[in-house]
Amino acid sequence: MKAIYLTGFMGAGKTTIGKRLSEALQVPVIDTDLYIEEKIGKKIADIFTEDGEQVFRKYEREYLRLLPNRDVVITTGGGIVIQEENRRWMMNNGHVIFLYCDIETIFDRVKTDPTRPLFDAVHKENTRRLYNQRMSFYNEAHFILDTTSKSFDDIVNSILLWL
Ligand code: S3P
Predict the structure, then answer these.
(1) Ligand 1 centroid – CA 8 distance (Å)
(2) Cβ(116) to ligand 1 under 6 A?
(3) Whose C-alpha lies nearest to ligand 1, atom 4?
């Protein structure tokens, strides 16, 4: 089985769905953010404040290439798609599944979250702008699934049917 890359905006449910999918397929799950945190020895929020977003994006690009591309579910950070080479890498090395979720639903789920430096629940227009800017990148995926108001079971079943 080719690697499965789950993409989508912060709060779309990538981590939970990735875990469930990996159990159903009996393959490991790797989260790009956790992988970076382990390798660098710093939390994502600290990388952003101490080193800046550009350094984080460099890690994201470098470590994505080190992950296995078979028999694995890879859950990605919401901004992985902004680098063209990451989109190309994922499209060429596995199945890219975009977990679409309506932005208002995401606001209901994610309140202010110190672990997500780019999620601004106070100035919602900033978060909406980021969401809109990224939509065309997410839409390049092999499979697009609208997860808004669907149960985790339904989402995982739809992915399994598509595979
Ligand atoms: C980011 C999303 C985060 C994390 C970092 C940047 C983004 O991951 O990679 O804070 O640019 O959207 P999640 O999508 O898992 O929250």
Answers:
(1) 9
(2) yes
(3) 77
Report the pLDDT value the prediction gives residue 153, as an integer from 0 to 100: 96
DSSP state of 148: T
Quote the ligand 1 centre to 159 CA distance (angstroms). Answer: 22
Domains of the chain, earliest start first: 3-162 (3.40.50.300)
- Which residue, by CA, sits nearest to atom 2 of ligand 1? 78
Summarize the confidence of residues 7-21 as an average pLDDT. Answer: 97
Please tell me if the CB atom of residue 77 comes closer than 6 angstroms to any atom of ligand 1.
Answer: yes
For ligand 1, whether the C-beta of 33 sits within 6 Å is: yes
pLDDT tens digits for range 30-87: 999 999 999 999 999 999 999 999 999 999 999 999 999 999 999 999 999 999 999 9
Q: Provide the mean pLDDT of the chain.
A: 96
Residue that is written with structure tokens 């994201």 in the block: 60
Q: How many CA atoms lie within 13 A of 121 on its CB side?
A: 15
Its pTM stands at 0.97
Place of tokens 């979720």: 101
Task: Indicate if ipTM > 0.90.
Answer: yes
Q: How far is CA 140 from CA 7, 32, 49, 59, 116, in A?
A: 11, 19, 30, 22, 24
